[in-house]
Amino acid sequence: MTTTVLFDMDGVLTDSEPVINAAAIAGLREFGVRARPEDFLPFVGTGEDSYIGGVARLHGRDYDPIMKKRVYEIYLEILPGRLRPFPGVLDLLRQLRRRCIPFALASSADRIKVQANLKAIGLSAYWFSAVISGDDVAQKKPSPDIYLEAARQTGAAPEHCCVVEDAISGIQAAKAAGMRCVAVAQSFEADALAAAGPDRVRPRIADVTLQDLGLS
Q1: Is 166 exposed, middle or buried (0-12, 13-18, 19+ CB in 10 A)?
Q2: 180 with 214: CB under 8 angstroms?
Q3: Does the global pTM surpass 0.85?
Q4: ∠ CA(161), CA(181), CA(201), 5° rounding?
Q5: CA-to-CA dists, residue 162 to 31, 92, 93, 116, 197, angstroms
Q6: Dihedral angle of Cα 82, 85, 86, 91, to the nearest 10 degrees
Q7: Which residues form the catalytic set?
Q8: Cystine design at 143: which of 8, 43, 139, 178 (Cβ 3.0–4.6 Å)?
Q9: Looking at residues 146-154, what average pLDDT do you find?
Q10: CB 111 within 8 A of CB 48
């Protein structure tokens, strides 16, 4: 039975993928990398070092952390006014609050991006029992580290946690952590998500029910 719900951020709470994609393309271009939007798909959900570095290496360039610094500068410049929570997000969080079910945010993104996105969609960190970013763990998704850390910070046993994810790497991380997982097909096709082995696949987060989360 689920006692705690863990949410990924990008692609689950808000559609930030097009914004970071645009920023990464623009930032990498300054380092001589002519990336295409689709180049980033294998690295979605794995943290920005992998997201940016993987594409740089794909184009024959060594990754330098200054690339990420520049991408974040561009991201923060173009972010205002471009993000909203997905329909259904606030309703689901309010349902969990009414049921006194703890929920946490666990994102492979760096904390600067997590904080910027929450502010952009009008959510405070105080909504969550814990906020874990990629800065808090050694290994990013698909490693289970981030979800195990979220369980530790919320005092929940991993087998009593349910993860809401949109990315294949995130589903793999949740299952490696021994957790229930509900996938939302907001970034990837439902068939691709289903192949990663979640317990449920729903088209959108607005379609996720408390029963899907393992709550009676």
Answers
A1: buried
A2: yes
A3: yes
A4: 150
A5: 40, 14, 14, 25, 14
A6: -160
A7: 8, 10
A8: 139
A9: 98
A10: no
